[in-house]
Structure formats: C-alpha cells, structure tokens
Amino acid sequence: MNQSRVALAAIATLIPLAMITTVYTGRPALQDREEQEKITVVASFYPLYEFASRVVGDRAEVSSLVPAGVEPHDWEPTAEDVSRGRAADVLVINGAGFERWADDMQAKVVANTSEGIEFNYREENEAGDDEQGHEDAGGGGVNPHIWLDPMLAKHQIDKIRDVMASSDPANTDYYNQNADRFTAELDSLDAFIRSELADCNKSDFIAFHDAFTHFSERYGLRQHSIHGVSPEGEILPQTIQQIIELANGFGINIIYSEDLIDSRLADTIANEIPNGKVLVLSPIEGIGNEEQAAGIRYIDKMKQNIANLKEGLECR
Amino acid sequence: MQIVEIDRLSYAYSGNLVLDNISFTIDEGDILGIIGPNGAGKTTLFSCMLGLLDDYTGTIKILGEDIKKKNNKVFKSIGYIQQKKTIEQNFPATVEEIVSLGITITDKTSKEKIALALETVGLLAQKDRRVGELSGGQQQRVLIAKAMVNNPKLLILDEPVTGIDLEMQNKFYSLLEKLNQENKITIIWASHDLDAVNRFATSVACINRSMFFHGKTYEFFENPDLLKAYSESSMQAHMHLHNHTHRG
Amino acid sequence: MILEVLEFGFMQRALIAGISVAITSSVIGLFLVLRRNSLFGDALSHAAFGGIAIGLATNIYPLWTGLTLSILGAVGITKLRQYAKIPADATVAILLSSGLALGILLISLSGGFTLDLFSFLFGSIMLVSVEDTLAILAMTGIILSIIILLYRQLMYITFDEEQARVSGLPISKLNYLFIILASVAVIVSMRLVGILLVSSLLVIPNVTALLFNKGFKKTALISVSLSIFSVVIGIAISYAANLAPAGTIVLVSTAVFLTVLAARHYSKKKQIVKKLEEARS
C-alpha cells in the first residue's frame, strides 16, 4: 500500500515538473534574449524581415512576427507575439493600415516604413469587388502593398536605416553601408524591370488581389484584381463573371494566382477564357520555409514575378 | 413436431434472477398463452428467444436449431409484435410501406403478399394512409400484417392488446385464431387477460420468474387450486416488486 | 441575365454539383432527422474540420484527413452510445466541440494556414473544378445506389431498431455503413456550402417534407425536390443579387420551410372552421 502511495506522490510531483520544464525548454529564445547584448528587431512580416535583416546585418537579432509562409492579411498576434513585440528594441512595420494590431503592441520604437510616402489615391481599379477592398484597407483607402515597388522599397530601407541609426548610434556607419548596398540592388532591379517590360503588347493584367497598385503605377501598367486589398472572402458569382468579361475584353488569357493562396478561384476563371492559364504573381507577403532555405529572397521573387508578367503582357 | 424447446433457461439482470430455470416446449400449431404478473419475466423470455439477449444460461431451440448459432433463417421465420408501442405520429410511412418492412426478400410477389396480409387484418382499404393517422387498434393490426407478411412459422406477441378497446380486442383474437388455423402459424402470446387466454389459447404457461405451471389450457382453468395459487403468487409478486422498487 | 450566365462553365458546374449535393444530403438527412439525430451532420462536419486542419498541418490532402476523422468520430460516438449508454445529443456535442477544438488548436499551433480556411467554413460552390464535379457526381451515384438498394432495411432500422434486429437485419453493420455514407455526404456538401451550413442541407428540406404528411418514398421525393429547388433558386438569387451563394441557398430553403408551415397552418384552420360549420348545420 505504502509503495503505491509513494509512486502516486512521485507521479503527482513529476507531472507538473515535466510541464514546467517543457514550458521552459520550449522557449529558450526568451531566456537567451535577456542575456544578449545585441539589439532585437522584430519585423511584422516577410519583406520587412528581409529588409531589416539586410540593414542590420549581424549587429542585431531580427525575427518575424508572421511565421514564414503564412498569409499576413488575416494574421492576428497571439499573446506571445505581443510580448515579443513589446520586448523588442525596434518593431519594423509596413504601416499604411496593413498591421491593424500595431498600435496595441505598444512597442518601444516603431519603424513605420511607409511613413513619408505620399500616396495619391486612385480610383482606377475597375475590376474586383473594390468596395470590400477599401473597407478592408482601413488606412483611408491607402493601398499598403508598397514593397512591391522597388522605389518605395528603397524608401522603406531608408526608414529602417534611420530608426536603427537613432536606436543604435554606435553602428550608424555600418547600417548606412548595408542600406546603400541593398538600395543599389533595388536600383538595378528597377532597371531590370524597365528593360524586361520595355516592349510589351499589353499593359493590363489581372492580379489575384489588389497588391500591385504601386508597382503598376511605377511601370505604367494597369492592374485589375479579382479580390480587393485582402485576398480572402467568399467569391460572389457576379465577380467571377465580371473578371471573365474583363479578361475577354482585354484579350487576357493569363490569370494570376498567388503563392500563399488556394488557386481554385484563378483556376475557375482561367477555365472560362480561351487558352486560359494560371501563373503565379507573388505579392511577396511571405516566403515559405522551403524557399527560404533554398536561398530565395525578395529580389528573386520579384524576378520570378517579372518573368510571369512578361508572359501575360506578351513582352519580347 | 416441437417448434420451440427451452431447456433450463435462466437469466439474471444486475444481480437479480429474472428467469429461473425455465423449461418448456411448444408443439407446432399451438397457441401458447403465457401468463404471469408484471415483472414476471415474460418480456425477458421473449428477448432471449428473439436473440436480443444472449447472456442467458440453458438452451433455446427454435425449429430444432439452437438460436445461439444466430441462424438468420430461424429468426426470419419468427414474427414478433412488441408490447403495445405507439407508432410515432409523424413517422412518414404508409400502411403498405410498414407492412413491406416484414418482407425479407422483395420480388414480384411482394405486392401481392402485402395485399394479402392487409386483407387478412382487414386494412387493405387503408393501405395508402399514413400509419400515424390510424387508431391504436388499426396500428396494431398493421404490425400484425407486417409480422405475418413473410409467412412466419412462429408468431410471438407480447401483450398485444394493451390500450385497445374491447371490440377491437375480440376482433384481434379472432384474427389470431384465423392465422393459427388457416395459416398454420404457431403462436406464443403473453397476456394478463386470463379470460382471453382461457378462450383462445390451446395451452398455458404460467411464469413468475420460474415456471409455475405448463399444460393444456383446460388443465389450468379447471383446477381451482392452481387458479387460487396463481392469483396469490401474483399478489406476492406485486408485493415483492413493490418492496423491491422501494429498496432499489 | 440569368440564362446567359448559364453559358459559363463555373455556373454549370455549380448547378450540377449543387444539385448532386442537394440530392445526397436530403436523402441521408431524412434518416438522420427521423432518428432524431439532426445534429449528427454538424458533428460530422466539425470533426471533419479537425481532420482538415490535420491535413493542412501535415500536408496531406485535407479532404482525406477530414473524411477519415469524421468517420472515426462517427464510429466513436456510435460506440460511446452503445457501450457507455450516453445520450445521443451529448455524444454529438462531444464530437462537435472536440472536432472544432482540434481544428482551432492546430491552426493556432501553426500560426494560421496558407490555404484559404474560409472556403472550408463557408464553402465555395462557385469554384468547383471539373474534377470536383465528376467526383461529386460519382459519390452521389454511389451513395444513392447504396441507399436505394438498402432503403427498406434502413427504413426498418429507422422505424424500429429492435424489430429490425429481431427480423434478422445486421443492424450494426448497416448502422456503420450508414455512418460512412453520411460522412462522405457531409464532406462533399461541406466543400460546397461549408462546415457551418452543412447540417441545414441535411435537415431543412426533410423537416419541410415531413410537413406534407406523406409516406416514406413520397416524403423522400418531396425532400429531394425541395432541396434541388433551394439550391437552384439559391444560386440564381445569389447571382442576380450578388450575394454569398451558400448563405442564400440555406435561406431559400428556410423560406420554403416557413411557407409550407404557414400554408399548412392556414389549411388546418380552414378545416377546423369547415368542421364547425358542418356540425352547426
């Protein structure tokens, strides 16, 4: 009898102990971080993670709130995410209404990378359920997808550099160098895009959601989209019909889908148009772990996009 | 030929002996009236015979076959009518559809069989009506038609006339006699209407946990000592049951 | 305007798939409703939700994991009912909430899925592919032929399970078969109208058909017709008014139910008045 009681008591103490140890070993990052002297930077989602990483190099620890490969539009932070955001020295966000949770984060320093960009709000996007899109945008009709325009991405880099320099003045020169290097890469990306899209039959294309507004403006294209600003929500029958008619009207046979989204909607539409075909036009809102491991970064993604866009726009 | 042979059947339910060492046989063509007070184990006996309960001791043979072998042929030759159970008023089935449930293999003759069964119970005119709309007595006759549509050799009826008016009861008993004589169906029928059992049964089994009497109907009813003993034991059973529920 | 949209393949597929799903779900649903098991479909679809989450988390085709989990869950609660004698509605609640909880847990663990979860919750009848449509047609064919083949046995079990057992029907085999059919039907309809609305397709047309007070076959036929009507009219309205299709379909079937209910109430009243008048004169 006594033995079994001892055994029970042992189990009773072991279980909570085991739970405590798993909790602690499960979060080694928290402990480590306290010991580190490096500045911690938390970026909201993928492109900002890459931009911030490029700027800070090895002088700060960068992590992303939205996990790799997760569509960030409908992402909501968990309690742990919030405490991570608060603990960080710098929180890098896209702004322009993309991170509706940013204010609640109460981060120490916020680098709002869209700050200072002058948006000229346009109402040209005929297609898609625009109303829904605008409601979703929240930021007074501003389209938040600035990172897809390399020139605006340069602005974002500048912003990150400035905030880093003021948070960590000792490394200002280092940050400047890194930012300049990345800015140069973005300049050559810009030149690449201009030359690739120099000789095209079409200027209209149908994106999955309203992500390429700034990009189109930059390169003289016209974006139409199936969805509004956010790529989610049940599709309405008339919307499908409108897109089909639009595609037929412009003689478009390529419908763009996205990498983080079920392609069934694009497939359905492509099925209805002559020689219809679905290609990916990534809004680079996230890069999956596998692709990241394969070394695919923002600029590679942009180049893939351009290759697919060339086919749709019939460029030579 | 003996259609049912039961040998030393006992059944206990949560520590209570419900059936105690019951043995009897039924000859083909018999109408066996099973009498006994409420809670005497009549329904349990039927459940054992129908294969609904199989954790009993002893053996039950029907048509010469031990029912523990679960031979479907045996069960298909049994028609069973439960203790009066109301048919759900809204159940969407016509009289014809309910009777058709009794047919094991449907073929071209099914319609005729159903019509015949309905004619026997006098409900052919109602075949397209919903069962829920019929009176209790009519519903019971529908269930009989269902039980006999497959030409069973044995019909087991568990207090089939509870809640049915007297005129209907008499019609019902005449129907049983007809089935027994014309269709050669052996009938086992539980009742506590001694008068009806006296009039229609050919033999009687009196059960109160254990077998109290088994023999020809006249042997029971012409023996005042037996009748007296039966009514006393019934009373006791009531008392016993009463005490039991109080304790339990 | 409505006729011209029929030229679009996606509309044709939505109609074909929608009608198939209407047929299977109303046929399966009749047995569920009559066995007082109306919420079983809900339980199955929520279990499927947990299964879909497993599929998304482990990169297995989510409909298979969904189907597996809903069958396992359904068999599990059937066993629970038999051995532990737990009331049917309680077992439904257990399966429903644990399926949902599993799904939520997995989603929170993975930090959200890349795939559009929305389409599982609310369905995407406009997006059925040609392959989907063929698969749905095949499943409908299989489910319907099994039900037609076993229709009397299933009806018997529904009418009185004990009697059915006595008459030698293999009750538990039939019950398991039915559960599997129901799971398949739920998974198929879920793709079209979503997890949250599946049980409406199973239940509403049948409850409406029962109001007609007909026999079994006729009730089934009425239910199937009402179900097809709701799907077709629902799709038409959702197109004409640019409304969410799944929600529109369900509300149309609710409207049909209310109309039939009102008509029945009215005709009953009329009968009573008539009887009174006859009695007076």
Number of folding domains of chain C? 1
- Which architecture of the largest domain in chain B per CATH? 3-Layer(aba) Sandwich
- Low-pLDDT runs of 5+ residues of chain C are none
Biggest sheet descriptor of chain C: none
Compressed to H and E, one letter per element, the order of chain C equals HHHHHHHHHHHHH
Please state the average pLDDT score of chain C: 87
Record the strand order, biggest sheet of chain B. Answer: 6-7-8-3-9-10
CATH top level label of chain C: Mainly Alpha
Q: Into which percent range does the helicity of residues of chain C fall?
A: over 70%
- The CATH topology of chain C turns out to be ABC transporter involved in vitamin B12 uptake, BtuC
Q: CATH fold name of the largest domain in chain B, please?
A: Rossmann fold
How many domains make up the 3D coordinates of chain B?
A: 2
The tally of strands of chain B reads 10
User: Please, what is the average pLDDT of chain B?
Assistant: 84
Quick structural overview:
The complex is a heterotrimer of chains A (316), B (248) and C (281). Chain B has 248 residues and is of the alpha/beta class. Helix content of chain B is 39%, strand content 26%.
Describe what this molecule looks like in 3D:
The complex is a heterotrimer of chains A (316), B (248) and C (281). With 316 residues, chain A is of the alpha/beta class. Chain A has 2 domains: 33-114 and 145-187, Nitrogenase molybdenum iron protein domain (Rossmann fold), CATH 3.40.50; 199-313, 3-Layer(aba) Sandwich (Rossmann fold). Chain A contains 13 helices and 8 strands. In chain A, α3 packs across α7 (150-167) and α3 packs across α8. Chain B is an alpha/beta fold and 248 residues long. Chain B folds into 2 domains: 2-77 and 152-247, Rossmann fold, CATH 3.40.50.300; 92-150. Helices cover 39% and strands 26% of the residues of chain B. Chain B is built from 9 helices and 10 strands. In chain B, the strands form 2 sheets. In chain B, strands 6-7-8-3-9-10 form a 6-stranded mixed sheet, sandwiched between helices. Chain B has a 4-stranded antiparallel sheet with strand order 2-1-4-5, with helices on one face. Residues 239-248 of chain B have low confidence and may be disordered. With 281 residues, chain C is mainly α. Chain C has a single domain, classed as ABC transporter involved in vitamin B12 uptake, BtuC (Orthogonal Bundle), CATH 1.10.3470.10. Chain C has helices at residues 2-5, 9-34, 40-58, 62-84, 88-110, 117-122, 130-149, 151-159, 161-166, 171-193, 198-210, 216-240, 245-280. In chain C, α2 (9-34) runs parallel beside α7 (130-149), α2 (9-34) packs across α11 (198-210) and α4 (62-84) runs antiparallel to α5 (88-110). The longest helix of chain C has 36 residues, at 245-280. Chain C is globular, with a radius of gyration of 20 Å. The model of chain C has no long low-confidence stretch (mean pLDDT 87).
